[in-house]
Amino acid sequence: MRTYTIGQAARLLGVSPDTVRRWADAGRIPTQRDESGKRLIDGEQLAAFSVSLASEASSEDEAPYTTARNAFPGIITAVKLGDVAAQVEIQAGPHRLVSLLTREAVEELGLAVGMEAVARIKATNVHIDRA
After folding, report:
1. pLDDT tens digits along 23-32
2. CB–CB of 97/61 below 8 Å?
3. 97/11 Cα distance (integer angstroms)
4. Which among 12, 29, 38, 120 would be 20 to 30 A from 94, CA to CA?
5. How much is the mean pLDDT over the chain?
């Protein structure tokens, strides 16, 4: 499974690395250390945390995105595969984005829970780029 550094997790969650460190120190986000001593966060655990964090966020404190063609870097929190179609959910900071695409596209991109991805919004379409 993919792991993320404190800095990468901070970017995906839309907070500072110091905030992620404080959350890790408080036990809100489990971390492990690699052979060089750097703290890493498991992708699936980060995905679950991002969903819970978004539900805690107050809508009054959120700064809205203002253009129709925004890129929302985030983490994949759910992938639902049907026979032909698929649904991919991305948590990008406080924003939960859902994209409907073909099963073939999901399989070709290798999309899975815990992976970093970018949702690009244009009009009513959500495009997903593998990061």
Report:
1. 999 999 999 9
2. no
3. 17
4. 38
5. 86
Interval 69-102: pLDDT, tens: 578 889 999 999 999 999 999 999 888 999 999 9
- Assess if residue 9 is contained within a domain: yes
Residue 25, CA distances (Å) to 29, 31, 100 in order: 8, 9, 37
The residue from 61, 85, 103 where one domain ends is: 61
- Residue 44 inside a domain? The answer is yes
Cβ proximity of 131 and 73 under 8 Å: yes
Q: Strand 3-5's sheet: what is its strand order? A: 3-5, 39-42, 32-33
Q: What three-state secondary structure class fits 11?
A: helix
pTM for this model (two decimals): 0.59
